[in-house]
Design goal:
- There is one protein chain.
- By secondary structure, this protein is α/β, with parallel strands linked by helices.
- It is 32% helix and 32% strand.
- It has helices at residues 58-72, 88-93, 109-118, 120-123, 138-143, 169-178, 195-211, 247-251, 262-268, 273-281; strands at residues 3-10, 13-27, 32-38, 43-47, 50-54, 78-83, 101-105, 131-134, 149-155, 179-191, 214-221, 229-236.
- The protein is globular, with a radius of gyration of 18 Å.
Amino acid sequence: MELWFSEIHTPAVKLDIKLEKQLFHGQSDFQRIDIYETTEFGRILIMDGFTMLTEQDEFVYHDMLAHVPMAVNPNIENVLIIGAGDGGMVRELARYDGIKRMDMVEIDKMVVDAAREHLPFTASRLDDPRLNLYYEDGLRFVRKHTNAYDLIVVDSTDPIGPGEGLFTKEFYGNCYNALTERGIMVNQLGGAFYAQDIASMQRAFSRIKGSFPIARAYQAHVPTYPGGHWLFGFGSKTLHPTRDMQREQWKALSLNTMYYNTTLHLGSFALPNHVLKMLDEA
């Protein structure tokens, strides 16, 4: 008997992935968590029926959230990571020797525990000595800090369920306060393909624009995410994502990235006209 996982992208579209076996199933206080071994995508992490990552393409998402801000300011030392229980964001940021402290705030300990056991390709740096791991609400955590972080990475689920509070005007305002003068915030904005995803993407981007004097969106292709065309948000007090990019300083680090490079960095902010229109209407 063949086993398949079906993710509903819209009421009229779904993605089917052939499964080999289930590696983990759990119901935490916040969400249902499943990890499967698949034929095409390797191991995949599912939360409440939505694909969070696959072994085959997770590097695209993690590269674009981690290395874009680090290329704008390679001198970042103090980082706050909100969400990211799979460990992929820590894995990428831990490659920067100049980072002195990473505070990671994940509301659901079960995600981290499951990743440690079943997702070694993302969880490999969760024991980095610079990492402080807090199991609490990121919205509440960021309220308590002012002028504390050079970078805030919001690696959350979509704006429903446990991740809903991480897309509010209050949250982005608190992120602004928690950043240093040259601080940067990046987050995932969601899809720009299906109509049902566009409204939440626009709402999130409008709140970034309302909180940061420099606010931009950038893009990447993540095959297993709905529509494949994924947007990220960039908010900063003083640094522009392309004009202030430190190309040569970042290249001198000699990081072997799978997706990101400095030429792609510039191209990722060159958005298609229909997306620019969506963002203008936000």
